[in-house]
Every structure is written in structure tokens, then in C-alpha cells.
UniProtKB/TrEMBL annotation:
Residues 448-533, 565-762 form the AP-5 complex subunit zeta-1 C-terminal TPR domain. It holds the Pfam family TPR_AP5Z1_C. PANTHER family: AP-5 COMPLEX SUBUNIT ZETA-1. Residues 319-436 form the AP-5 complex subunit zeta-1 ARM repeats domain. Coiled coil: none annotated. This is Adaptor related protein complex 5 subunit zeta 1. It comes from Scleropages formosus (Asian bonytongue). Residues 1-278 form the AP-5 complex subunit zeta-1 N-terminal TPR domain. GO terms for cellular component: AP-5 adaptor complex. InterPro entries: AP5Z1, AP5Z1_ARM, TPR_AP5Z1_C, TPR_AP5Z1_N. Transmembrane segments: none annotated.
Length: 772
């Protein structure tokens, strides 16, 4: 949200009148004359113009003369940088920029080129001219000129916006330049800026070799992990080149995979030594793209070797970890484009994994290593189970509170769902552990896990996965207690509120509760049953104070938590039965147990009502050929007993604790079942005839309103009238699945329900024309 002062300025900028705006434009045009640009009013007016242009929803069309002045100011190398920044920002937000005046010229410095290029990228669709200028500056690059340092970031933006703007010759030119910068940068330190002083002299400015992160002198070529007091221009280009090499390879190296010759060569020369010898001595003979691939691979190998050195500063240690992630990722890209690199890369990757696998500080580096194993372990016939066991079991259990790792881990699983499900046997068994990231970092990861969950489903663990999702608040509470147990007692006082933390930690260590905690924090599926013993922990008071308290924080108070939960289940139950009606027969035993227990009505009425409706709708031969009269009779007798029990209300009894809707659904379902087994019609008709005495009883009349009672009686009378004509009742209460599609000319059996619908619709329409 904006502060009140900022909101006021934005409102003024949006509501400025046209007359005032024209006067303001004229004032800026005068200020932007070459002799008046340096004044303080110019800066203030450009800042206000920037606000006016950006505050408008659809942008503003500036006068042509003002556009020309702004573009001249932007393109002039002698303009103050602050004014160039403002003019660039204004032109990006405005409409109808003059493309001819934005042309880049050879005399412009790198700063001006970058500001002009940003406007071109935002306003111009055709980027050929910009690409030509950028590549021309690269081709004429000199070590002491800083233009190229600005060119590569702009070129990276061009690749993202319009990769086809570069021709094949342009791609080869950039590839050659990237090779030179990656592999042949100077190993001497650049001349650092002098701070002045009495002892400053020529000897203090003599170049010295760059060093490794541990302080030793570099013995190989320069990389981003080399340390120095200052850097030369080609060393800066080395760093810029490495920062964009991944995007470059992904954009321009995909279609350039070596063709049949390389495949034949890898089949014949399968050994590592032959491949190394084939690439080491003849790299200069390779085409530009393949040579870049080779040098980028060597660069990444060098970074992995440098990461083994102990950094003298923490900032260098953090840089090592970041470079490892990038290096392994680039090597993975190269190996996907040319399989011959796989055999050269795996010894290096395996050694790296063995070195860092036991150090949690390198946890984020394991993700690209796992990606490399996932992509290439079959090619190299390398066992990857150890890598994925650590990834799927150790990471979520030990690092669930690392939010960035949780996001990157989830993105990794989403990107590789199909491959993980097919080739990593541990993946679907690890969902109790993977859900720890969701439990701790929810709701930030909810959308990611919605996409991820289908890949974790398996017939043998589907029910356990469902219960694990329902138990997420309990899992979050258990993780919270586990995390607090690692802190010293002096720090726990900061979290302790009324002794809750102390009692929770004591319970965490007690053998009586240990089994439950081990189940909640389990690493893989199939190691226990669902939680069904909550009441025994409530007696001690601990469960209510801690786990249920966590439920309150996540989903509200426990009784209200069940209501939306049952509503969600009810909604999806209807969708599921509609897609798979045979589920009623497949789960008939479970459904009979559930609907036969009247206690489910008082605690799960929403779910119970939908379940009864689904039975009446889908329990028929048309949906499952295994459905018999015996099945229909069994369900009828179960629901009949339930309806009889809840409608037997004495004058002294308490009012009913269920809604009238449940009564109408039960009556309708019994009528539907009776229409399919006509021997049951007398029983349900007798029952329906007694509903008047039920609705007129004292407790029911006190609880239900007059409209509710009338609705129950009306439904009972309608059903009784239908059941007097059994053949009609069967078609009305249970029309065929094709009843919604017109087939009058083909099948007379489907004509009655649809005819009734059409006639009913016509009658309803005609009532508007009847005289009142």
C-alpha cells in the first residue's frame, strides 16, 4: 500500500487537466534545450513527468517536439546520467516513440547504449538494428573499452524478447567471443583505484596475479571464483559471459546437437579416454557452437575443482555454492545436447556429490546434481538411488523450515513429475516426508502441491495420502515442537506461553506419546495406520493445548474445521460418483456401515445427505450390471431403519438436530429404490403416509418452521402419488442416462422423461400469457 502522501501525488498525476498538461509539456520543452539542461528545475520537472506518464493506466501520448527533446537528451553521451535515467524511464512508459531518433551510434558510450537499448526493447518490435549495433561493438571489442560490459546484459534481454533476431552468423560471432572471454581472460589483477596519499607511487600499481579463494596464486585460467583487488576488462567480460552462458546454450544450442556422426562416434569410441583425446587437441577445429560447448564444459569443471578450496571469507564461500549450482546446471545442459560429455561429466559430478552430500550447507546444490542423475544416470549406467534417497528423505525431514529450499525443491518435483513417478521407486513412497514442506510453508506452496499430488497417488497408498493431507495441521504442530526441542532451554522461554512449550516438549520425549510422534513425522508411506486415537491424548490435556491449538491456527476452531471439510468432501463425492457410478456397488459394504449409523447424521450431516442422494441416484442396473434386487433391498432396509429412528419423536423428546432437507432426501431415495424393486412400494407408501403426524408433533413443530413442515408434506404426497403408478415412477424418479439427449425417433423408452421436461417448460412459459 502507498503512503497517504504518495497516494495524493498519484491521484494528482492521474487527474491533471489537459490545459495544465499542455502548459507543463511546453515548460519541459524549453528546459530541455541544450543550453538549459543542467538546471535543477529540469530534474524536478522530469521527475513529475515520469509520475504523470507512469500513473496513467494506458500510458500517455507525448507531443512530438517533447519526444524529440527527450530522445536527444537520452542519446547524447554528455548528458548527466540522472537525466538520462529519467528520460529513458519516461520514454518506456509513453506511446508513439520516434524510432529513427533512437538509433544507436558508434560514438556513444556503454552507459548511453544501455539506456537507449532499454527503450528500444520496450517500444520497438523490430530489433534487428539493435542487434546489429550490439554485435558490431562486440566485433570491434578492445580490452580497454567498457562498451562490451554493457552489451552482454542487453544482448541477454534481446535473447529473452526475440531470440530469432540473431542470424546464424551473429550466433557464431557471439559464440566465438564467449569462448575467448571464458577461456582466455588475463590472470593478472586489474589496477585498483588509488585512494591517494603520501605513499602512493608507481610500485603500488604494478599488476599481481589473481588468487584462489583460499589465497593461493591461480595456477589455471581465470574464473568467477578468482579473487583480486581489481579486475581487468576481459576479466569482467569473463564474469558476464558465465552469467549468460546457460541462457545462451538453452536458446541457440538446442538444434545444434551433433548429428549422426557424433552418435556413431560415441558408439564406436565408448571409452572415456578416447573422448577426452578427441576433444582436447582439436577443440580449435570445432565449429563455434561446439567449441563453446567444449570450453563451457571445461569452465564448469574448473569451478567444481575450485569449490573444494576452503574460502577465507564467507562471501566467497557463498559464491562457491552459487557457482556450483550454475556449473552443474550448465554441464547438464551440455550433456543433454551431446551425450559424449556424459562420460566425462559423471566422474566429476560423483566426486562432487560424495564431497558435499553430508553437509547441509550445500543442500541447494544437491537439486541440480539430482537433476543431472535423473537425466543421465541411465545413459552412463550409474546407480542413482542414494542421491534420491537423500533428496526425498533427508531434505524435507531436516530442512523443512528453509523456505527457499522448499520452493526450489517443489519446483524440481513439478518439473520432473512424470520421470520421478516412472523411474524413481522411492518417489511415491516419500509423500509423508514431502508434505512437511507444505505443512510448514503453507499457503505459499499450496498451488504447487495441487499440481504435484496426482503424481504421488498410488492405489495402495491413496487412503493414507488423503489422511496425511487432513493431518497437515497435526504435522505442522509436531514439526514446530521438534524444531523447538533443538534449542537450548534459555531460548525456549521466548516462545513459552503459560507453560505450553514446556509441557509439549515433555510430551515429545515421553514414551507414551513417542509412537504417535514417530508416526506423524514418518519418512515414508506404509509404516503405520492413520491417526484414530486422539481422544486418549486429550485426557492428559497435552493434545488439546498443542496439536489442537495448531489446528486452530491453521483451520480455525476444531468444530468449525469439520464443517467446511465435510462440505468439500460432499461436493467432490457427487462429482466422483457422476464420473464413476459403479463406486456405489464397489463400496457397498462401507456405504451401508456409514449410512446405517445415525450418529453420522448429527456430526456429518452434509456428507451423510450427499451420500444418501448418491445411493438413490446411482444404485441401479443401468450404472452397474452387478446390481441386483437383493442389493437394492439391503440399502432400502438400512435407510428405512434410519428414517424410522429419527422420525420417532415423542412429546417429551428434545427437538430434532438435523435439517428438513435430510428428511426429504431420505424419503426421495427410498422412493427411488422402491421404484426399482416394486415389492418395496407398499412399505415406503405406508411410511410416507405417516409423515403428517411427524411434522405436527410438538418438538418438530417447535424446531421446524411452517414452510419446512409444508415442504416435507408436499414431497411425501408427490412421492406417494408417483408410486401409485409404478411404471411412471420408475421413469420419473430414475430416468435413463440418455434422457437429456433427444432420441424420440430412435427409442420410445427415452421419450417420456424428455417429453415431460419439454411440456413442463412450455407450460411454464405459457403461464406468463394467461390472464390474471
Amino acid at each position: 500500500m502507498y503512503a497517504s502522501g504518495s497516494e495524493s501525488l498519484i491521484k494528482q498525476a492521474r487527474e491533471i487537466q489537459q490545459e495544465e498538461l499542455r502548459s507543463f509539456y511546453s515548460k519541459i520543452c524549453k528546459l530541455l534545450q541544450p543550453q538549459g539542461r543542467e538546471g535543477g528545475d529540469t530534474l524536478d520537472c522530469l521527475q513529475r513527468l515520469r509520475l504523470i506518464v507512469s500513473a496513467h493506466k494506458y500510458g500517455r501520448t507525448l507531443p512530438v517536439d517533447l519526444l524529440k527533446r527527450l530522445q536527444d537528451l537520452l542519446c547524447c553521451p554528455s548528458s548527466p546520467e540522472q537525466l538520462q535515467v529519467l528520460s529513458s524511464s519516461i520514454l518506456r512508459e509513453s506511446i508513439a516513440v520516434c524510432e529513427d531518433r533512437l538509433a544507436l551510434r558508434d560514438h556513444q558510450d556503454g552507459r548511453t547504449v544501455s539506456y537507449v537499448a532499454v527503450v528500444i526493447l520496450a517500444q520497438v518490435d523490430e530489433l534487428t538494428g539493435l542487434c546489429h549495433h550490439l554485435l558490431k561493438s562486440l566485433e570491434c571489442w578492445q580490452p580497454d573499452v567498457q562498451v562490451s560490459r554493457h552489451v552482454l546484459p542487453i544482448l541477454s534481454r534481446v535473447i529473452a524478447c526475440s531470440p530469432h533476431s540473431l542470424s546464424e552468423d551473429h550466433v557464431n560471432l557471439v559464440s566465438r567471443k564467449l569462448v575467448d572471454w571464458l577461456r582466455y581472460a588475463s590472470v593478472q589483477q586489474g589496477i585498483a583505484a588509488s585512494s591517494g596519499g603520501f605513499f602512493t607511487g608507481p610500485r603500488t600499481r604494478q599488476p599481481v596475479p589473481v588468487t584462489e579463494v583460499d589465497g593461493t596464486v591461480v595456477g589455471d585460467f581465470f574464473t568467477v571464483l578468482c579473487v583480486g583487488q581489481g579486475f581487468t576488462e576481459d576479466q569482467w567480460m569473463n564474469m558476464y559471459a558465465f552469467s549468460m552462458i546457460r541462457k545462451w546454450l538453452l536458446t541457440y544450442d538446442i538444434e545444434e546437437t551433433s548429428s549422426g556422426d557424433t552418435d556413431d562416434k560415441s558408439e564406436v569410441d565408448g571409452s572415456v579416454m578416447s573422448m577426452v583425446s578427441a576433444t582436447s587437441s582439436s577443440s580449435r577445429m570445432l565449429p563455434p557452437k561446439e567449441r563453446l560447448r567444449e570450453k563451457a564444459f571445461e569452465y564448469c569443471q574448473r569451478l567444481i575443482e575450485q569449490s573444494d578450496r576452503k574460502a577465507a571469507k564467507k562471501v566467497d564461500s557463498d559464491l562457491q555454492k552459487a557457482c556450483l549450482v550454475e556449473a552443474v546446471t550448465v554441464m547438464d545442459i551440455i550433456c543433454k545436447e551431446d551425450a559424449s560429455f556424459v562420460y566425462r561429466a559423471f566422474p566429476c559430478i560423483k566426486a562432487l556429490y560424495g564431497r558435499i552430500s553430508g553437509d547441509l550447507a550445500f543442500s541447494r546444490t544437491l537439486l541440480p546434481i539430482a537433476q543431472f542423475y535423473l537425466n543421465h544416470s541411465e545413459t552412463a549406467a550409474v546407480d542413482s538411488e542414494g542421491v534420491f534417497r537423500q533428496l526425498l528423505f533427508s531434505f524435507p525431514a531436516d530442512l523443512f523450515n528453509e523456505s527457499m529450499l522448499a520452493f526450489e525443491f517443489t519446483q524440481f518435483c513439478r518439473a520432473n513429475m512424470a520421470v520421478l513417478r516412472e523411474r524413481v521407486t522411492l518417489y511415491r513412497q516419500s509423500f509423508p516426508n514431502l508434505l512437511k514442506f507444505l505443512a510448514w510453508n503453507s499457503p505459499a506452496l499450496v498451488s504447487e502441491y495441487v499440481e504435484l499430488l496426482p503424481s504421488l497417488l498410488a492405489p495402495e497408498t491413496a487412503i493414507e495420502l488423503l489422511h496425511s493431507l487432513l493431518d497437515l495441521p497435526c504435522l505442522a504442530a509436531a514439526l514446530d515442537i521438534q524444531l523447538r526441542s533443538f534449542y537450548p532451554s534459555s531460548d525456549r522461554a521466548l516462545w513459552d506461553q503459560g507453560g505450553r512449550t514446556t509441557s509439549s516438549l515433555e510430551a515429545f520425549r515421553q514414551p507414551y506419546y513417542r509412537g504417535m510422534f514417530l508416526y506423524i513425522l514418518r519418512l515414508e508411506a506404509g509404516t503405520g495406520d492413520t491417526i484414530d486415537r486422539n481422544s486418549q491424548y486429550g485426557d492428559d490435556g497435552w493434545w488439546e493445548r498443542d496439536v489442537v491449538a495448531k489446528c486452530h491456527l491453521s483451520l480455525g476452531s476444531l468444530p468449525f474445521r469439520c464443517i467446511p471439510l465435510h462440505r468439500v468432501f460432499s461436493f467432490h463425492l457427487l462429482l466422483l460418483c457422476k464420473l464413476q457410478p459403479s463406486l456405489i456397488m464397489d463400496l457397498s459394504r462401507e456405504l451401508l456401515d456409514f449410512t446405517g449409523a445415525t450418529t453420522n447424521i448429527y456430526h456429518k450431516e452434509e456428507l451423510y445427505t450427499h451420500m444418501v442422494w448418491a445411493i438413490g441416484e446411482y444404485l441401479r442396473v443401468g450404472h452397474d450390471s452387478h446390481c441386483t434386487v437383493e442389493h437394492i433391498t439391503t440399502f432400502f432396509e438400512t435407510l428405512e431403519a434410519v428414517l424410522f429412528e429419527i422420525t420417532q419423536v415423542r412429546q417429551s423428546a428434545s427437538p430434532p438436530l438435523y435439517s428438513p432437507r435430510l428428511i426429504t432426501v431420505l424419503m426421495t431415495t427410498l422412493a427411488k429404490l422402491a421404484s426399482r424393486s416394486q415389492d418395496l412400494i407398499p412399505r415406503v407408501s405406508l411410511f410416507l403416509s405417516k409423515m403428517r403426524s411427524f411434522t405436527h408433533s410438538g418438538p418438530v413443530a417447535a424446531c421446524f418452521g411452517e414452510e419446512d413442515s409444508e415442504e416435507i408434506l408436499t414431497r411425501a404426497q408427490e412421492l406417494m402419488n408417483l408410486l401409485k403408478l409404478p411404471n411412471v415412477a420408475q421413469f420419473v424418479l430414475a430416468p435413463s442416462a440418455q434422457g437429456s439427449s433427444p432420441r424420440w425417433h430412435r427409442d420410445s423408452n427415452t421419450s417420456l422423461p424428455l417429453s415431460m421436461q419439454v411440456l413442463s417448460g412450455l407450460l411454464q412459459k405459457q403461464t406468463n400469457f394467461l390472464p390474471g
